[in-house]
Amino acid sequence: MAYSNRVMARFMQPTFQGELAPQAQHRYLQAQVGSLDQGAVLQLSVLVDEQTHCIDAARFKMYGCGACIATADVLCEQLIGLNQQALGDYSAQGIAEYLALPPVKLHCTWLAEEAIQQILMAWQSASLTH
């Protein structure tokens, strides 16, 4: 299967690959979705600025195909600057279009959507306790 140029660029040199550490003045949120049995695992971590209440940084660790790595990289880029409301409205479907993912690779965006939901639930839960 041939990947698009955008997938190849993100797969070969992902900008947002790695892990974040908790920082002062930031809320640290993390999600892990997928399974090794299914062939893909996405770990997503974000830092939410306590002053602006927006995502200040996002990083991913991914076990999966090149399309999944590219999807996670684009996801992290698009999450930066979102507040809780915007995150709730966010859809990863645009990533599939941007990367020109074939239907057989749409599971990559499903993982992204699942990770977003986990991050959103953790953020909402943390907001209730503060």
From TrEMBL:
Domain NIF system FeS cluster assembly NifU N-terminal: 2-125
Entry protein name: Fe-S cluster assembly scaffold IscU
Gene3D superfamilies, per the entry: 3.90.1010.10
Origin species: Paenalcaligenes hermetiae
Name of the coding gene: iscU
Pfam families noted in UniProt: NifU_N
